Amino acid sequence: MQQQLTLGQKVIAAFDVSRGRAKYSTIRERIVSGARIDGIHLCQLGAAILIASIGLNTDSTTAIIGAMLICPLMGSVLAISCSVATIDMRMLNRVMSSLLLQTCIGLLTSTIYFRISPLSTQTSELLTNSSATIWDLLIALIGGFAGALGLSRRQEPSTLVSGVAVATALMPPLCSVGYGLAHGDALFALSALYEYLINVLFIAFGSTVVLLWLRMPIVGDLDGDGKEDEEEKERAVREGSAFRHRLVVTLLIFALPCGYFSVRVVKKSIAETGTVFEVMDTYDTEQVTQELEIVCPDLTSYHVGVEDSYDLKSDALQQRVVATVETKEELDDANKQQVEALIRLHVDDLDEVSFLVEGEKG
């Protein structure tokens, strides 16, 4: 007679990721081959960098998504998770070196592009991909989790991994760093670099969790002689456990600024709308505010409203859309034009931008 499963056992069985798992050797081979650098890999990388840079420069979301689908950076990030899960330090060193090389190529190529490009405006896509929040961190973490699950299946997971590459956005922030370097904006470059590193680290962390969950076998050959004995395996487990603990602590510390930026976003939303989330942000107020803070560090507040005005010619009451920008110090004409251009990207029916200095009454 078959034993009846309890509710808890049914839940555990429903989330059993070991079902349909590929062989450990197959999973490892997929990850290792995905991180391998050759001529085709570098050509794809260069193409993705240029497409992403053009997309950021022209505010083209379609081009940016295309670059993320082409870009092979995800392979190296997933290989980091495999080396951490299996305590393969030699593989970790190789993969970190290859990721550093790809990052440098990306920075050099994007910097050269933005240096020679006649378009120098900080577009909406550039600003969006140069600041990290806790939501970016969560997307990276969950994306890495989903990517590793896809790689662990018997069926080839190409579609799922491509989707993860788009969701987690490695290429746009990397190219945004190039924009900051090309225009000598160190603060912008550092902010974009931080978002890039947040994505890399937490994609790898999410993937590592899955590979540990699947009990990927460790590599016990610490001395590199091609042989594994019980003593080496035990030492590898001890050293690997200590390494992972240090890694988790490091990740938490590295994520602290991300949490700080997120708190600022929430506080500003509460201050402007009275609630954490606006019911309907018709004019992208929250997003524009974040972008204006980068372009205009002296920004105190920003909001868009509809004002009634009486038109003498038509003898009728009309409505005008007015954006109000309040800053600590008065902006010069060039800065005002830049701010107004950024606002008009989001508010199509804008009639006027009003500039105030903190303490003045509009």
Write structural notes for this entry.
The chain has helices at 7-14, 24-34, 39-58, 61-70, 73-85, 89-116, 124-128, 134-151, 158-168, 171-182, 186-213, 230-254, 256-273, 285-295, 333-346, and strands at residues 299-311, 316-327, 352-357. Strands 1-2-3 form a three-stranded mixed sheet. The protein is mainly alpha-helical and 362 residues long. It has 15 helices and three strands. The chain folds into two domains: 20-219 and 231-257; 280-357, Alpha-Beta Plaits, CATH 3.30.70.2210. Helix 3 runs antiparallel to helix 4, helix 5 (73-85) packs across helix 11 (186-213) and helix 14 packs antiparallel against helix 15 (333-346). The radius of gyration is 25 Å and the shape is elongated.
Number of domains: 2
Radius of gyration: 25 Å
Strand content: 5-15%
How many individual helices? Answer: 15
Termini gap: 81 Å
Mean pLDDT: 81
The low-confidence runs, each spanning 5 or more residues with pLDDT under 50, are 276-280
Taken in chain order, the helices and strands follow as: HHHHHHHHHHHHHHEEHE
Q: What level of helicity do the residues show?
A: 55-70%
The side-by-side strand order for the widest beta sheet comes to 1-2-3
Instruction: Give the overall shape.
Output: elongated
Structural class of the secondary elements? mainly alpha
Largest sheet: 3 strands, mixed
Report the count of strand segments: 3
